[in-house]
Design brief:
By secondary structure, the chain is of the alpha+beta class. It has a single domain, classed as Double Stranded RNA Binding Domain, CATH 3.30.160. 25% of the residues lie in helices and 26% in strands. A 4-stranded antiparallel sheet has the order 1-2-3-4. It starts with a strand and ends in a 17-residue tail after the last helix. Pfam families: DUF7387.
Amino acid sequence: MAGATRDAHDGEGVEFIHEDDGSITAKDIETGVASFGDTKAEALRMLAEAIELHEGGGEPIDDEEAFLKEIGIDPDEIEDAGEPPWE
């Protein structure tokens, strides 16, 4: 069974959840964004990246097909679901 610890003050900070598989989830209490890793340090590093992306950081994807190929997905093997709901 997973357990949780909080390093938080006034609704800010990070909640650590120790998962049954040994991984640790780090959840930003203010935004609700979460990520995981094998250690607290790795979970925090991944959480920082996730928060940056959540807040609009990172690079925009100009060529979806090239991006999918770069991460190992064949664009011809996925169904087109149409436009995302936010567009």
